[in-house]
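Our consortium's second objective concerns turning raw sequence data into structural hypotheses that experimental partners can test. To show how far this objective has progressed, the report includes one record in full. It was chosen at random from the queue rather than selected for favorable results. The single chain below, 361 residues long, was entered without modification.
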Amino acid sequence: MKKELYYNKRIFLSIFIVLISCLLLFNGSVGAYELTARSLGMGAAYSAIADDIEAILYNPASIANAGVLGLNVNTGMSIHNTEYLEELRKLYKSNKFEELKDFAGGLKDKAGARGQFFLGARVSSIGLAYNVKEDLFINPALNDNFTEKQSEYILSYGKQLLKPPFEIAALYYGINLKYINIERNMYDFSQNLHGTARGNTFSLDLGALAKVTDNLRIACVMENALAHAPELEGELRRYEYVNNEWSWQTLGQAYNYKKELDSKVRLGAAVSIPLLNLTLAADLDNFLAAKEKQVLHLGLEKNLFLNALSLRLGKVQGEELDLNTFGLGLNLTALNLDLAVAKNKVGNNELTGLISASIDF
């Protein structure tokens, strides 16, 4: 017993040293908040709440605190500048040079869209997931136009480190190993250039979760810790409009792009109030970085009708973010159906919608 306790203390000390070292070196940047429908409904204040397969995206330590088996499918879309909602929806599907150029020519302001798909499965404390994000961004004023697809293949593991009586002051840790593949298209409409490039890299997420009491949890997560920016390499094409149609030829020079991965350190807490069937949560991204890089997440979840229906509200506040979020969840024993919407009150009035379905035993 003493030997096991000594071994656990050494593991905890090692993890603690790694966490502190990374925190001191980690500046981070504002990352994506629209990860799953349930979390978005709560303003993405989710690192201390994640108790199912969604833990892979928010805090891998929570996988060890979930059930025996889990499966989750999540999809959704964000639109920047909803004035061009229909055009962006069509362009997102086609990605043709001539259609993008025509759209940019009549654009008064920047606009864009993001699509997302997540599929994850968990058996006990081991999880596997595929997470893909596709971006379309058009900014004629700065001639900054691109599409990008980022695919992540994730292996996740979580374990309970300390097992005190009645789970009071229980401690969990978790890790995500990620292989990331990136494909990028750049468009220079003034010179009729189209660059294509791709590359890949490996990354790491670290998470810790402390159950201070049955109703109070505290979490710390580092996303993309120690990851390096991959160099994307590809070719450059020049388009010409001849005889009422577009044609292209490959140029001798290559197209290269250095992709900076979004990284952040997140500190979170959640408290449950059983008498009210209410959960309150707060997360702070990049809490050791400069104030302009910090993002505050606030959320609540109210369970109704014997926990069959969940009502969620949230707020996300940052330098370029002022989101109000709303979500609903239908809980049918092991099956959960969730949806969420969010509206950014600053910038280009980004509108986000997500739906998800999960099974957890």
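The partners drew two points from this record. The first helix runs from residue 2 to 25. The CA atoms of residues 73 and 291 lie 34 Å apart. Both points have been shared with the crystallography group to help prioritize constructs.
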